[in-house]
């Protein structure tokens, strides 16, 4: 019995503590409140049953649990975009990467939500950086999602059964929350993902023009299939280059109901993608857009949002010759809705999202726009406006109390609520540090204590 209790104690020493139950009524008072769209000095944020009840300057309601935030900053939880959180653990261990799929019969229909791991060690680390939600995207050549890229040498053409191999499409993105628990999925299949530019050209045969032609033909096949499902079922339709699962998955893209996240870097490629979207009636989100500032007015006129890393400033290839750290500021000034990404796939370095936002401010982006780019804008871009990423009545109570300005690297997230539940301010790294530094219970096998 004693051995069993020691084993349980040792296990609990390395387990991430389960979240505190959501308080029936909690009031965070006296802090500088960043709502996501405005600033309230000496504000009060009231949450109940997982939702924000009110945000303002009034007194705390009677009977509420009071959290004194005087001298601190209260902000919405940040949203990581183009992320691999929950879908990848160690890049060099392929078995831990559920963001990449190589089957030619399952491409557009690849759904990352089925590979999510709520016990991933990466989630608490990101949470300590103020991240409370994430847009998880599948991998593809040239993409940032998860930081694992395909081998660009994959051949192009038709595979077995006449199916595209490899496909133009990487799969479908999902939204997750980072709260402790066993179910982190918020919404699956929120966007399709596809590479363009050099990466897309390599899939289609080596030339950009070939990819655009193949993309148009694919959409034509999807629309043909959507109009003639009965004929397809009885083998009365010509052979198509995608599997039935992929055709079904692309119907909402072809109809403009599901956005297509397009990884594209070069200004000339951005122009052609905007043209393609306009001619085909496809709703797109630009990902990367390192040279976007050169065509900012065109992106704004097309009402197309951009996911970007504002610290990309090195011309590493001919797609990024004009990359610069003012990209975010120029796009924002032109009226483009931007969302700021973390680094290296936003998995292990997702917490650096706020650092990137701070760097964008140092290069001309307004502070208010930087906060929007990591809170309300991601929610807007992915059809979740008002549901998270903002402190407003009715929104999910994703609230973080910071020791200081959240865009300053030395500030710490002191109290974190996700969906109204207070989260343990720790991670596996901290637990292991404390376990072995102190030599306390669990530091040695149970037999050593006899």
Automatic annotation (TrEMBL):
Q: Which organism is it from?
A: Brevundimonas basaltis
| Extent of the signal sequence | 1-22
Q: Which UniProt keywords apply?
A: Hydrolase, Signal
Domain Amidohydrolase-related positions: 330-412
**Which GO molecular function entries does the Swiss-Prot or TrEMBL record give?**
hydrolase activity, acting on carbon-nitrogen (but not peptide) bonds
Q: Which InterPro entries match?
A: Amidohydro-rel, Metal-dep_hydrolase_composite, Metal_Hydrolase, Metallo-dep_Hydrolase
Going by the entry's taxonomy, the superkingdom of the source organism is recorded as Bacteria
State the protein's name: Imidazolonepropionase-like amidohydrolase
A Pfam family that the UniProt record links to this protein: Amidohydro_1
């Amino acid at each position: 019995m004693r051995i069993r209790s020691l084993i349980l104690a040792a296990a609990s020493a390395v387990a991430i503590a389960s979240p505190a139950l959501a308080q029936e009524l909690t009031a965070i008072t006296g802090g500088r409140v960043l709502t996501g769209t405005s600033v309230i000095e000496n504000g009060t944020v009231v949450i109940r049953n997982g939702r924000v009840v009110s945000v303002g300057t009034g007194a705390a309601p009677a009977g509420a649990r009071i959290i004194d935030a005087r001298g601190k900053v209260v902000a919405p939880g940040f949203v990581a975009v183009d992320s691999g959180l929950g879908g990848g653990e160690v890049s060099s261990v392929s078995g831990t990467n559920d963001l990449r799929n190589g089957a030619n019969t399952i491409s557009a229909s690849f759904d990352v939500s089925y590979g999510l791991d709520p016990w991933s060690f990466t989630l608490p680390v990101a949470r300590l950086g103020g991240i409370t939600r994430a847009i998880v995207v599948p991998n593809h050549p040239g993409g940032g999602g998860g930081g694992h890229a395909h081998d660009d040498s994959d051949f192009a053409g038709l595979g077995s059964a006449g199916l595209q191999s490899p496909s133009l499409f990487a799969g479908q993105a999902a939204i997750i929350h980072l709260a402790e628990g066993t179910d982190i999925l918020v919404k699956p299949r929120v966007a399709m993902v596809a590479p363009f530019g050099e990466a897309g050209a390599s899939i289609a045969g080596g030339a950009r023009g070939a990819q655009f032609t193949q993309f148009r033909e694919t959409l034509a096949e999807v629309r043909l299939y959507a109009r003639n499902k009965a004929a397809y079922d009885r083998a009365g339709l010509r052979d198509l280059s995608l599997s039935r699962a992929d055709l079904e998955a692309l119907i909402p893209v072809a109809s403009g109901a599901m956005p297509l996240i397009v990884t594209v870097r070069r200004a000339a490629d951005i122009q052609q993608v905007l043209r393609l979207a306009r001619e085909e009636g496809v709703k797109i989100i630009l990902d990367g857009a390192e040279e976007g500032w050169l065509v900012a007015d065109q992106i704004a006129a097309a009402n197309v949002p951009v996911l970007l890393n504002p610290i990309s400033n090195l011309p590493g290839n001919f797609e990024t010759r004009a990359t610069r750290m003012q990209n975010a500021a120029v796009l924002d000034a032109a009226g483009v809705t931007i969302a700021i990404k973390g680094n290296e796939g936003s998995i292990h370095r997702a917490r650096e999202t706020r650092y990137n936002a701070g760097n964008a401010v140092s290069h001309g982006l307004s502070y208010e726009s930087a906060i929007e780019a990591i809170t309300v804008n991601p929610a807007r871009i992915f059809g979740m406006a008002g549901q998270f990423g903002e402190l407003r009545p009715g929104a999910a109570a994703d609230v973080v109390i910071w020791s200081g300005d959240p865009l300053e690297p030395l500030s710490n997230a002191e109290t974190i609520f996700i969906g109204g539940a207070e989260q343990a301010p720790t991670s596996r790294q901290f637990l292991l540090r404390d376990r072995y530094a102190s030599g306390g219970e669990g530091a040695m096998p149970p037999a050593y204590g006899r």
